[in-house]
Design brief:
This protein has 310 residues and is of the alpha+beta class. It has three domains: 2-102, no CATH class; 115-215, no CATH class; 221-310, GCC-box Binding Domain. It is 40% helix and 15% strand. It has helices at 2-12, 32-39, 44-55, 90-94, 100-112, 142-155, 157-162, 178-188, 217-222, 227-230, 265-289, 295-302; strands at 59-60, 75-80, 84-89, 135-136, 139-140, 170-171, 194-196, 206-207, 213-215, 237-240, 245-252, 255-262. Helix 1 (2-12) crosses helix 2 (32-39) and helix 11 packs antiparallel against helix 12. The chain is elongated. The chain starts with a helix and ends in an 8-residue tail after the last helix.
């Protein structure tokens, strides 16, 4: 009977109890013999030693005595260092169960997105220290989503492997705290706009309050460099093997603009540069006159210069 029970434990692992996760390591030594040993009453010293092996120093057992410990079904008083006294059976505590408040907090965080008391770092660097909810109806609030995506661009290994332009990007110390970033976000965010780091400071690699701004999606995509598509050619230039010519092209309001065909890459780039800067100024003026971008963004766009090594 005990050997069958041991196999059952090994098969179902952490699902042994209703809705409560138990570390698999708890069961690694459980077999028929050890179950027989657990069924027997241990000395108080041995019992406390086994508790510490399962839970470390997470709990205090100062109130456990021979008076309240009779057998493995006994309800004993255990003190959680964070939430205080609770009662639990000896058996359940030996197999990994602990403070019910800790378990409920963990479950609530999983379901609602409430902040953990000891928050897990985002991308290994970002600290979610905001005291409110980051999700409503299972959807992340916009400020948290923007912060999380910013961190992924700078510190997400998989993202940076696919997007080499973010290779040396980083986030300032202040914005590694979500509460700090959210404060700036709430003061500056415009619905539907994108966070941009290199319009105010061309070539900038640092996300910070001094270098970032929110801009319309059209302006944000206007300065995309598409390095993968152009290969070894300068920005805005594509080499066609069929006629051995260099083509200059750009886009405006989502539509491709063909500039011309040239014998060499430099001439093609110069034509692209002139047309691109013309389009940037035209769109910047349109948005500024309609009150859709700040003056500092407008000035940065009007002074923007396309370089051959962009």
């Amino acid at each position: 009977m005990f050997s069958k029970f041991a196999k059952w434990i090994g098969r179902f692992g952490h699902r042994l109890t209703r809705g409560k996760s138990i570390a698999l390591s708890t069961f690694k030594l459980i077999d028929a013999k050890s179950i027989d040993n657990m069924a027997k009453k241990k000395s108080l010293v041995q019992l406390l030693h086994e508790f510490s092996e399962v839970h470390g120093d997470r709990y205090c057992y100062g109130q456990v005595s021979d008076v309240n410990y009779k057998n493995n079904k006994s309800q004993i008083p255990v003190i959680c260092k964070e939430h205080g006294l609770f009662h639990i059976s000896v058996w359940n505590h030996l197999i990994g169960q602990g403070c019910p408040i800790c378990a409920n907090i963990k479950r609530r965080i999983s379901n609602t997105g409430n902040v953990r008391k000891r928050p897990k770092l985002v991308c290994g660097v970002g600290k979610n220290d905001y005291e409110g909810n980051i999700k409503y109806n299972k959807v992340k609030i916009q400020s948290y989503h923007t912060w999380e995506q910013m961190l992924k661009r700078c510190y997400g290994t998989k993202f940076k492997e696919k997007n080499q332009t973010y290779k040396d990007c980083c986030v300032c110390e202040e914005w590694l705290s979500f509460s700090n970033f959210k404060e700036w976000f709430d003061e500056n965010y415009i619905e539907g706009y994108a966070l941009d780091k290199d319009i105010l400071v061309k070539g900038n690699k640092l996300y910070s309050p001094q270098t970032c701004c929110f801009v319309p999606i059209e302006i944000n995509s206007l300065l995309t460099k598409t390095q993968k598509l152009r290969g070894d050619c300068p920005i805005g230039v594509h080499f066609r093997k069929d006629n051995q010519k260099y083509f200059a092209y750009t886009s405006k309001k989502g539509e491709r603009v063909n500039i011309g065909c040239f014998d060499n890459a430099v001439d093609a780039f110069n034509a692209y540069k002139a047309k691109k800067e013309e389009i940037i100024k035209e769109i910047a003026t349109e948005y500024f006159n309609n009150g859709k971008i700040a003056e500092k963004v407008y000035n940065a766009l009007m002074n923007y210069q396309v370089e051959i090594d962009d």
